Amino acid sequence: MNLLVPADPAPFTVINANGSSPFLLTGDHAGLAIPSALGDLGVGPADWSRHIAIDIGVRDMGLELARLLDAPFIFQNYSRLVIDCNRDPARDDAIPASSDGTDIGGNQGLTEIDRLARVTSIHAPYHSGISEMISARLAAGQETILLALHSFTPILDEMRRPWSVGVLHAAGRIDFAICLLDALRRLPIKVGDNAPYAMDETDYSMPFHALSNDLRYAEIEVRQDLISQGEGQSFWAARLRDAMEEAWQRLT
Fold it and tell me: Matching InterPro entries, A to Z (predicted)?
């Protein structure tokens, strides 16, 4: 069942597909589109500019980082309120009924057919796109380090989050993530090691793509107030580029 009509955006966008870099960038929550069939999901305009709907700043930071690295960047075009592409689609929170105090009316009382339409139209094509890109790179003998770009709100549940950037990792080949942490810690900023989030059973993308293919990887979280504007996005793209290249040099 296809939820999307021709006037709707494609499920995902790929930039610089043939980039020569060992890095493959992804953006699970980079988009803000809504399928026309779903209206506004019962969510007011103010909430569509919040972190509950999008990883603020990630799309444009990722575009600049892809340019600086000559890396492919594949990112989701639809809001995480439509379906969260960093969740197993079988989980209830893949299509949240509420998020950080906001009820998502259009996500309440869904049938299994409703949920399946979002999975097959958006979630599955996005992850198939990533899988195909990884398979093509591996078949060509191209080194691939999977880097998931995210951003986090400075305050959550009335608690201030002091980190400028966090690097998330869990099982598998974490050597690049550890080297990236070391490179970032040499900067005059507070760096989170599995903070403000830990990579756990809620994460889908990295276990599905990096662990299953035995890839080096890292999930990178940048605080949203630092990349909400173009100047900050360019600054952090350059800062991450330098740290990523330093980390990779230590492993080669």
Answer: N-FG_amidohydro, UCP029730
Helices 230-251 and 58-69 cross at an angle (nearest 10°) of: 50
CA distance 41 to 108: 9
In the chain, what are the domains?
12-251 (3.40.630.40)
In Å, what is the CA distance from 23 to each residue of 58, 71, 240?
A: 16, 6, 12
Specify the DSSP element, H or E, that contains 60.
helix 58-69
**Tokens standing for 159?**
């608690």
Q: Which of 148, 159, 150 is nearest to 224 (CA)?
A: 150
Could you report the per-residue pLDDT of 23-38, keeping only the tens digit for each? 999 999 999 999 999 9
Burial of 3 (0-12, 13-18, 19+ CB in 10 A): buried
pLDDT tens-place string over residues 115-135 = 999 999 999 999 999 999 999
Q: How far apart are CA 76 and CA 11, in angstroms?
A: 6
